[in-house]
Design a protein that fits this description.
Layout lengths: L18 E8 L2 E7 L5 E8 L6 E8 L16 E3 L20 E3 L1 E10 L4 E9 L8 E7 L7 E6 L9 E6 L2 E8 L4 E7 L6 E8 L6 E8 L2 E7 L9 E6 L9 E3 L8 E8 L4 E8 L11 E9 L5 E4 L9
Antiparallel strand pairs: 1-2, 2-3, 3-4, 5-6, 7-8, 8-9, 9-10, 11-12, 12-13, 13-14, 15-16, 16-17, 17-18, 19-20, 20-21, 21-22
The protein binds (2R,3S,4R,5S)-2-(hydroxymethyl)piperidine-3,4,5-triol (DGJ).
(2R,3S,4R,5S)-2-(hydroxymethyl)piperidine-3,4,5-triol (DGJ) binds next to strand 7 and strand 15.
C-alpha cells in the first residue's frame, strides 16, 4: 500500500525518484518520469501496470546523455566548470558536482509525450545551469522508446521569454508547452510544432500577474482544466484551478484543497481511462533545496460536483488509480 508522504520504493526496493513528474500511457504500461538528483541523474523513468508495483526502467536523462543540436541557438551544455561562473553571484540553486569538478545543471519538471507522426518520445523540461536560478530556460530531448537513453537537444528561451515551472498538454488536437515566465508572474501556453520539438508563434498568456507555478492540466467533458500552485519556493501553498473551452479564455482561479494543498504541490493529473476517474499526483517537497531528498509524493482522487467543480479527495493512503 502506498501511504501519502511516505517513501515509495520500486520493485528492486530502491527509493523512487520521480519528482515534479509526468505520466505517459504507452502499450501495456504507465510510465512515470520525474526528477532524480542522485549522482549525475536528471530524469528517471519507472513503469507499472497496476500503480502498485513500480519497475525502475532507466535514468533516461543524465549529465552524460548523448546530445544533438536541432536548432542553432540551443545551448547543449549540461555541465560547466566551476570557474565559468561568476563567484560574486549568489548561488541560489541547488549546487551539484559531477565528481570531476564540473557543476551539473538542474533539470526540473520533466514531461514526456509521444508524437504519433515522428514516432518519437519527446521530453520538455525546465533547465537551470546548476549555479543559480537565472537561466530560466526550457529544454527538449527525444528518444525512440519510452524508457531508452534520451538524446538531449539543448535549452533555450521560447520567444526570448523566461521559462521555469512547466508542463505539456494536448487539447483539441494541439500540443502545448506551458511555462511560468516574466519572473513567474504569468503562465504562457505555447502551441508546439507538429514534431513537438519547438514552439510556434501561437501563444497565449494565462493568469497575468497571478504568480502561478506547477501547472497540471487535464481534459474533461470538452473543457480543459488546470491546477496550479502559488509561488513559495519549496513550501506548499494554496492550489487553485481554472477551466477553459479553448486554452485562451480562462475562468477566474478558484481555490481547491486546503491552504497548503495537504502539504503538496501539483506534479500532474492522471486520467484513468479504465474507471474514468482523475487523480492528482503531487510532490510533498522537503522545505528547501537542502532538504530536497526528504521530498515524497501524494496521490489524491479528484471528484467533481454537478457543475464540474473539482475537489481533492484528501486521504492518508494514496488513491491508487484503478
Ligand atoms: C517551485 C517549483 O514548483 C519547484 O519545481 C521548484 O522549482 C521550486 N520552486 C524551487 O524553489
Amino acid at each position: 500500500m502506498l501511504i501519502n508522504g511516505m517513501r515509495w520504493y520500486d520493485t528492486d526496493n530502491n527509493e523512487i525518484h520521480a519528482h515534479g513528474g509526468f505520466m505517459l500511457e504507452y502499450g501495456d504500461y504507465y510510465y512515470w518520469y520525474g526528477e532524480n538528483r542522485t549522482d549525475n541523474n536528471f530524469v528517471s523513468c519507472y513503469r507499472t501496470k497496476d500503480f502498485k508495483d513500480w519497475e525502475f526502467c532507466n535514468n533516461v536523462l543524465t549529465s552524460s546523455s548523448p546530445v544533438k543540436k536541432i536548432n542553432e541557438t540551443n545551448d547543449l551544455l549540461l555541465k560547466r566548470s566551476e570557474e565559468s561562473f561568476d563567484p560574486s553571484v549568489e548561488r541560489l540553486g541547488f549546487l551539484r558536482w559531477d565528481g570531476e569538478g564540473n557543476i551539473i545543471s538542474n533539470i526540473e519538471r520533466p514531461k514526456v509525450v509521444y508524437n504519433e507522426k515522428t514516432k518519437k518520445f519527446v521530453m520538455w523540461m525546465h533547465y537551470e545551469n546548476g549555479h543559480d536560478y537565472d537561466a530560466a530556460r526550457c529544454a527538449v530531448a527525444t528518444c525512440d522508446t519510452p524508457d531508452g537513453d534520451f538524446v538531449y537537444h539543448g535549452s533555450f528561451r521560447p520567444h526570448g521569454n523566461e521559462s521555469r515551472d512547466c508542463t505539456l498538454h494536448k487539447f483539441n488536437g494541439k500540443m502545448y508547452f506551458i511555462a511560468a515566465c516574466n519572473a513567474n508572474l504569468d503562465l504562457i501556453a505555447y502551441e508546439l510544432t507538429e514534431d513537438y520539438l519547438d514552439v510556434t508563434e501561437n501563444k497565449m498568456i494565462m493568469f497575468p500577474g497571478e504568480k502561478r507555478e506547477a501547472p497540471a492540466f487535464f481534459n474533461k467533458d470538452g473543457e480543459v482544466f488546470v491546477l496550479t500552485s502559488g509561488c513559495t519556493g519549496w513550501r506548499p501553498n494554496q492550489c487553485k484551478f481554472s477551466k477553459s473551452n479553448d486554452m485562451t479564455e480562462w475562468e477566474k482561479l478558484q481555490k481547491i484543497g486546503d491552504e497548503v494543498t495537504y502539504r503538496s504541490q501539483p506534479a500532474f493529473v492522471f486520467h484513468s481511462k479504465k474507471n474514468n476517474k482523475y487523480y492528482y499526483f503531487g510532490d510533498r517537497w522537503g522545505n528547501s533545496s537542502a532538504e530536497y531528498f526528504a521530498s515524497t509524493y501524494v496521490i489524491f482522487e479528484i471528484i467533481f460536483d454537478k457543475n464540474n467543480i473539482p475537489q481533492l479527495l484528501y486521504c492518508e493512503n494514496a488513491s491508487v488509480p484503478k
